[in-house]
Amino acid sequence: MQMKVVKFGGSSLADADHFRQVASIIKADPCRHYVVASAPGKRFSADIKVTDMLYRCYDMIRSREDITDYYQQIKDRYNGIIADLGLNFDIDGELEYVKNAMTHASGRDYAASRGEYLNSLILAKYLGFAFIDAENVIFFKDNGSFDAERTQVAMREELKKYEYAVIPGFYGIMPNGTIKTFSRGGSDVTGSIVAAAANADLYENWTDVSGFMMADPRIVDKPCSIETITYRELRELSYMGAGVLHEDAIFPVRAAGIPINIRNTNAPEDAGTMIVATTASYDADRVITGVAGRKGFSVINIEKDMMNAEVGFTRRILDVLEDHEVSFEHIPSGVDTLSVIVPTAPLDDAKKEKLLAAITRRTRPDSVVIEDGLAMIAVVGRAMVKAKGTAARVFNSLAQAGINIRMIDQGSSELNIIIGVEESDYEAAINAIYKEFIC
Ligand code: ASP
């Protein structure tokens, strides 16, 4: 029999109706052995996620405000779910314990983590599954990084004890015994870790959309969804993945060769998107798997005659970036020019001045300037390698739409074409490329 690990996000566990839906999904397939749960998410757009309420409690305690009334709302959410499900389960002792622990100087991560802890207790009870506390099976190192080896051993041992279990997402434990969380959305990472330890055949990640779209639906009207995408394509489209799957969630399962299936709790009949290591199949009519991008980039343009003959020139530029803790996205270059694309947000005017001064000192260029207002677009597709004329189609579609291309970079794997355009052209560019390939 297959082994599946399933993770349900906050919107899938926001209220009792969703709990019922989740239970019916789990019970419909006996292969769904291990369930990773998030904290209750938003029930309607103006609602507040329990995780955010817990962060707020923590901040209130730090500023010596009384949290009694505010915390009551959190109690009400959990007790509301229990009552509505008709569960015979008293969670008040746990809720009181958490309140006391938060008040008595436990950390910010502890406070935030209780959202998944309490929700998982309820879900385990409702499903009749065992409860495995993440603090016994997910470990971090002293420096705060995830301890994969220790986690793998402990998680394996613990999972062996139970045929079916619920594990809270988002958190684990530090060597000194304090609770630490992954970054926001980190239950996806927990799910991936559990899937790898369970040697699962499939990691199902249940959320509120039916997988990835070929383009951002806020920009393109009703874009098609992606049936299958490789891990590498997804990395190239990582601008797009944001919001659906935590970036770090692919690593544990990818290493173990386990595919991820993004599914929609509100439309379980939809196949969703499969994320796989490799696949020979692709849709020959489409060529591209997706197009995604982001605004908010700057370009550092450096010019110097005979730059190409100067050994170590690029290294000196990269040294300067490293010294100033600036990470770069792309470095397209010409014979006498080099451009470095960097995110704009971490660069205030003072930092820009320092960067320019340091580059001038280290490389004596003919000119160096920083320009803001660039948007980066990634056109990604495993079929591009086989299809002739893809780049021409991309550039033509932009030309036809009257869009000026500021930068081009094609990865040597021919999996992607990266284009820089003015921020004001961004939406039009995404639409032009999408329409060129998908009619
Ligand atoms: N509840 C956490 C958050 O809101 C973690 C998660 O849902 O994955 O970020």
Protein model, in words:
With 439 residues, the chain is of the alpha/beta class. The protein has two domains: 4-208, Carbamate kinase (3-Layer(aba) Sandwich), CATH 3.40.1160.10; 290-438, VC0802-like. It has 14 helices and 15 strands. The strands form three sheets. Strands 3-4-2-1-7-9-10-8 form an eight-stranded mixed β-sheet, sandwiched between helices. It has a five-stranded antiparallel β-sheet with strand order 12-11-13-15-14. Strands 5-6 form a two-stranded antiparallel sheet. A hairpin with an 8-residue loop joins strand 9 and strand 10 (273-276). Helix 2 runs antiparallel to helix 3 (68-85), helix 6 (148-160) crosses helix 7 and helix 7 packs parallel to helix 10 (250-256). The protein is globular. The mean pLDDT is 94.
Question: How many domains make up the 3D coordinates?
Answer: 2
Question: How many beta-strand runs?
Answer: 15
Report the structural category.
alpha/beta
Query: Can you tell me the CATH class of the largest domain?
Result: Alpha Beta
CATH superfamily of the largest domain: Acetylglutamate kinase-like
Task: Label the overall shape.
Answer: globular
Strand order of the largest sheet: 3-4-2-1-7-9-10-8
Helix content: 25-40%
What are the defining features of this structure?
439 residues, alpha/beta, Carbamate kinase, VC0802-like, 2 domains, 8-stranded mixed β-sheet, 38% helix
